[in-house]
Amino acid sequence: MARNMFGTSTVLLGSETDDKLFEALKIVLASFGATVKEKNYNVVGSQEILVWEANINSKKIKIYSETYEGLSIKGSTELVNEIQAKLAKQVAI
How many domains is the chain partitioned into structurally? Predict the structure, then answer.
């Protein structure tokens, strides 16, 4: 986990090609009542970059899917940790 001085963290969740992980993340975000505010898709050379911006209880998170980099989330450290813990349980099901 990368944490900065502003109280935000970025966590690599896994491979960007892991469909089970994506489905589990959707379930977890829905359980938090997340609403997707924005979605961007870009192609840069051989890389595809998808970025979703979502709100959970007025806190903003970003979800990144990038070729060769993986699937990651960025937001307040506390919220990112909660999502990561719930996601680990969901993937184990």
Answer: 1
